[in-house]
Structure formats: C-alpha cells, structure tokens
Specification:
homodimer, about 210 residues, alpha/beta, Arc Repressor Mutant, subunit A, Rossmann fold, seven-stranded mixed β-sheet, 10 helices, globular
C-alpha cells in the first residue's frame, strides 16, 4: 500500500469504484471463492480488466501474474484503503422516515459506522426509540457532538435548513457530512468532507433510459 | 435536439451529469438568472467549461457564442432529454421506513414520478395510509401492475427477496426498476432498465476521505 501522500493524487473516479470492488469481493467471499483473475472480475463488474489493474495499481497492485487476485487479501486491503477497519461515530440529523431507515440499516454498522444519536426538531417524535436510541431534541445536539466524539453527521432534513446546521456541525468539530438534503452543501470550513447524495439524479437517469417506452 | 438513434451513442458518464446540470439550472431559475456562460456554470458545478460544452454538444449544443446559455431554454431542453416532461406511474415495493420516505418525497412528483401504490408483506403495516395511499398486501401486486400501467417499481426490500420480485415485475410488464436493495440486480429480461442505488458506496467514499482524521 502506498503512503498517504501518494494516495492523495488518486482521482475521485477511482475512489468511487473502490466500494464496488469491495462489494463484489465480499460477494465472492460469501460464495467461498478464493481467487479471481482481473478478467473474471471485470466480466462480473462490467468494467475492463485493464481498468481494474490500473485502479488497483494506484495502491501498489495486489495481483500476481498468472495467479490473479487472492479474494480475501484484496478485500481486506480495499477495506483498509476505504478506512473501514476504523469505527465512525455517527449522528442522524432529521429523524423522519429516511433518518430512521438509515439508523436501521444494519449493514452500515457492520462496516464500522455506528449510529450514536438521532436528533429532530419535531416534539411529536422526540423521545421515540429507534433501534434502542431515543430521538433527542435538536437543542441537545451541540453538547452531544462536542462531548461524544462524533465523526459523521447524516443530514436528512429539508434543503432550507441544511446549510446552517451543516456550518454549525462543522464548528462543533464534525469531520464528515453525509448529506441527503437535495442541495450541494458548501461550507465555510473546507476541512469538513461533504458527500452529497442526490437520489433524484439516479431516478432521472432511469427516466432517460425508459422515456421512449412510456 | 438529435434523433433517438444519434442519442444512443451517448456515454453513461454524460447521462449521469445531465441531472446535475438540470438541478443547477433549476437553482439559477429560482434566483431569476436568465443567462449564464459555460464558464460561470463550470465554476458553480466544479467541472471544466469545455466539459460542459462537450456534454451539451452531444444533444446539439444550445449555446450561442458570446451570449452563453439561456437558462430557462436549457433547463427545458435538458428536462426533455431526461424524459421529465412525461409522467411515470410508480409503485413502491417494501413499505418500510425507506419506502415511506421515498413515497413522501414531494420533489419526485414534481418531476413527473407519481407514486400509485405501495406494497408490503408485513400484515402489521398493510392498510396503513401513506400520503393518501393505503399500503397493500404484496399478493395484490401482480393484478395491480398489469392493470394500472405501472412504469417503474422502486425496490426497498431485503437483498434476498429482490431478484425474484424483480424478475416477476419484469414479466408483468414493468419498464424500469429503481433498486435500493444492496445488490446489483441482473434480470433475464434485458429490456427492463435497472438503476441500482448503493447508499453504502457514498458512505465509504466519505470514510476514505476522513479516515486519517478519525
């Protein structure tokens, strides 16, 4: 594996493909497959074999000529590259249906993302228990984030409210924001990493592809 | 705008950027901005101006030398390209938190995606009303899809159940599947378009970027 400095030059297109490799390798592991050639992997993943080799060479390779990849080793290495051997403390801001769905998503916890708290402004749902965690009033959030070493905030709240809360969270020391509000957040504090999820974009890709059959 | 035959050669990378252009142009419209140069648009969107020109040239251009783009015109043209001037009848399969969150997402309806039915296997939630629609037993789904001209099925159900239900839906005439089950669906019927959403992938991209600060 390369040093962090060398890693830094890696394009975001490569980074985006790593979780896919990770998912496919996980499925191979579940099926007790021990090794795989870049060609076989490429057929399964619908990318070219040379793309796979190029992507993995960014991190120092891992393959062996004529042998292919050791599935478990490669899975573990990609896990480390993605930072999945660490544990991330998470809060969910906005505990409506989407926030609760994410809190209940057990796969996230398996990958080291542990939901520590849920917050909402709605007094009707404050106090309700979701997976053993009581939804808290958003007024408690500042103290909570400052005292509990929260790493990531998941924003599942309206577009209008997201920018102010995101800037507050940044000030309180959060390191990453996983934003589901339908807007591209831009913070004053550039040290906070933002990952914007735009669900409607993938729905529009779908309509593009079926529009002539509807 | 080009004919469908010409459109077909357009790469999926371009298609994926179109909804982003659409969103940004929508925000410009909301702010009463009438025209914009590819350079200004590129700064806002963090892609190069030449990328924008290239992408839009795939559909015949739309820009005018020295004038830039007419925001409303470009917004409407991209809307047509994405198929958003049509109406899509949607069902949601799996009416848990995520299914209900998507059913309640009013922006989808504004773009022409109309939720017509929700289905679940869980008798405890069958009959509950979500945005005026009663959650139905999944046993009703076949007749419903066949009789009601359903175009798109949203799958918010466990990974294990998704492949069988997806193949059934394809047989019953569905045209597109928006899949939230954490697996890449592959159907026998290749005429059905599948858009897989992998939420965990974007979370892993986030952990990659913050891992050294945690």
């Amino acid at each position: 594996m390369l040093s962090k400095d060398e890693e830094k030059k890696i394009s975001s297109a490569v980074i985006k493909r790593l979780p896919r490799y990770y998912r496919y390798l996980g499925e191979l592991l579940e099926n007790d497959i021990e090794r795989i050639s870049s060609k076989e992997l490429s057929v399964r993943m619908d990318v070219t074999a040379s793309q796979i080799r190029q992507d993995l060479n960014n991190f120092g390779g891992f393959g062996q000529q004529g042998y292919g990849y050791n599935v478990e080793y490669l899975y573990n290495e990609i896990s480390k590259i993605l930072g999945l051997e660490k544990t991330y403390n998470i809060i969910i801001v906005g505990a409506g249906n989407l926030g609760q769905a994410l809190a209940n998503y057990i796969d996230f916890e398996k990958s080291g993302f542990v939901v520590k708290g849920l917050f909402d402004v709605n007094p009707k749902i404050v106090g309700i228990s979701v997976r053993g965690l009581e939804i808290q009033d958003i007024d408690n959030m500042e103290m909570y984030v400052k005292n509990k070493h929260i790493d990531i905030a998941v924003l599942t709240l309206p577009k209008q409210k997201a920018p102010k809360i995101a800037n507050d969270l940044a000030e309180w020391g959060i390191k990453g924001i996983w934003n589901f509000a339908p807007t591209d957040l831009q913070l004053k504090d550039k040290s906070v990493t933002i990952e914007n999820v735009h669900l409607s974009e993938s729905l529009m890709t779908l309509s593009y592809r079926i529009k002539d059959r509807v």
